[in-house]
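Memo to structure team: turn this sequence into structure tokens by end of day. - J.P.
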Amino acid sequence: METEEHSSSHVYDDEEDEELFMLIQESSGKEGDVIERFPVRNIWYLVGAGLVVLAASSFFTDQVEIKFDSRLEDVEKKNLSAVDDARVENESDIGNDSGYGTVDVKADLHGKSNALDDSNKSASTNFAEHSVSINDVEDFYASIEPGLKPRFNVLSPSYIPRGQPLAQEKRNEIKTKWGSWTLVDEVSRPEEDFFARYPYRDVPRNDFPSNAWQVDVAYLSRFLPEAEALVTRSMEAILAELAHSPIEEPGMTIEERSKLFELEQTDHDIKLKNVMFDGCGYTSPDSEGLLARRILHAVMTEDNFNFVMGGHSAAAGHGNNFQQSYTLQFQRILEPILARLGVRLQAHNFGMGGLGTSQNAMAARDLYGNEIDILMWDSGMTEKSNWHQNLFVQQSLLGAEGRVPMLWNTANLFTYHDELGVDIMQVGGFWKVGDKYLPLSDDPVQVKGLPYAVQYLKPSSGMQGETRANRYNGTCWIDRPDIDPPTKQADFPGGRASWHPGNREHQYASRLMLFQVLKALQKAIHIWRDADDFALPDKAWHMGEHYDSIKSKLQSWNNTACKANAVLPPRWCEVAFQGRSEYLPRANPSETSIRSLVKESMTIPEVKRNLYDPPDVWMPVLDPPDGDIDVLSIVENGVEFAANRQRIKHALDYIQKSKHRVALLNNNSEIVPGKGWYSHTKSAPDNCDGTYDSFCGHSADERCLLIGHNDDRGGLTYNSLSGWLILNIENVREGIIAIKVFANADNPLTKGWCSVNNEEPCTGTEVNSGVEDNPSDRRLVDAPLCEDFRFEFAIDGEITSWTRVEWEEKKMNVDRVVAVWTLLDDPGFSNGSSVDVELAIRMMGCDQKTTHDLTHVYWA
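Reply from structure team:
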């Protein structure tokens, strides 16, 4: 079954039972309204109401309180110094471990201000060509219009802890039991980003500046043991969380207790059922080493490390809060670990309900990103064909401008490994991998004695009902004195279908993934530790040769698996496509929308704004209960986090970035900008990048403001009264342009119009609202075209017109609700040069009887 969601919070998908989905969609979010097949549990955490006074005596507290960042409010300004004093007093081991200068971070920390001493406020964090101070960031942040602000974490020069608020006594307990990060680098380090001078940032060892920490033997003698201890306690914390600590399994080594995370070494693809309940998956003999080298490269070059997942509703995390999804749980734990090592981690959950990956995979380099370290596919429920998976992989590989991604969980893994040399990994099946190593949840009393993370993951036959009742613990709203939502909030996030995993299942899946990276990181540290005088050989961490080898082979490789379906032209498997979309989430959303291509003189209604600006209040559902293993607090514990080179560069790029709008000269005087194109999407869509810090969809009409999910099928809506949409398509080299259109929409902008662009007044009987009396956001099929339908498009002013029959004939059904039309396919169009093309499109002949959504534009 297909659904087309326009503005609702949740998208539900199933290709077998349409009626079932209608029942779920119509549910109001109250427990009694959900049919029996979808048992749910409404778990509420008791949260004290009232504004927390930011004062030293109450900032750190054992009791659960509402805490939020009112950075721009007078109350914070008055109490900031008290917060600073409390922070320093309660963190006896705080130090400035930034080799780049001290930063004053007043930040979004689930509502907690996190500041260093006032005496450091004037200092800046500088890299020669990338200079930014915290004052620059704060001034810029304050200048962003209300309702469009991102989370402050996005711009912070250093990682901002996300863990739950803890009293200092509790922090000391964690430090005593688990250890903490104590290293502070007090040496002046290079300010210039000297890595950028070398392809892939592969700096020869002899070219490192003499004061670089990477060649400082004294510093490395402290750094590497700290790094190894951090990785070890991270692994032990995860094992304890899953009931595999030395207490539960005395006398066993960490390797023996980690059996559930083992990967089988093999030279061929394995059917998942063969490894489903024993171990974690499989990989090639060389891929684990390549992952270790990839991570080592990120550490050595102070770079980003990017994880991208494309998938369906279960992978997106429907039924849960977005930050409970496995991709963001992966980020939640790994980000502070890598931050200690100077690496900026970004994990993108690009899952979409009711869809697979093909609509975005067709322009993966732009919509998924082109600097990916790990690319994961998880859309088995909506994409049964290997062809879709191979399109997903092929376009991602072709679009790789720098690093080439490691592939996780896609079809034909060993084909890509053997033919191209791509590093690969299959991490489980996914939700019940390692089941034999999980403790049994046997009865309602016994289960409460298990660590929270494993409760109900492996229920006995008599515990099925109890397990279903405890599957989820998400929330939609926590009362706060400064915001009174105008729309009644649901009791819990929607999407609690029987096939959607709950929060524990997502967390467990994230640990399976995370442990693979931790093992690789541990191996990388050991390689560095064992080198003479810590002089790491270039071949141990350089990645350029590996990437170049893959790219070279890719150019001449005939990917028959990608071309197995004849729907798309073969060139979609041969050249990298670019694209823009109104679907969310996507990489770099402010730069990858169709709106970013629109001619300057065109007027499209502004996007909706969020009801309030970030942060949200601290949500207890994201943390384990008191007294249970809290992995995040364990890995975050220690001195203040240092500024990070890539975070600073990102902040500077964000500040300096301006909208790229091109004033085009029409090549045809008949083509004038239309006035009836309507943009429908989530509120603040430029903040919808699928990461932990995304902040969109918090509009006044949202029924679950804390849900956080990014996926939305937005579009530019048009009908025959809308006129021309004029776009500037840059860098057309291969002579191919295509669009994706969904043929069933409503356009409130043209309601009441009787002529194109509303240029002629209505005369009475011809008035047509163009909007249904009871519109539904659930569009299951294309609406029929009107009899006189005509679609016109112009490329550099040359108009082509298609009749209704031609439109239907040229339609390419790539997947369910993924229909694509090729407007240009001429390899000799630009004679091998990159050119800019003016593309204009419009509908004619239907008045408002037919309304479409333009959702994607592709070109190469």
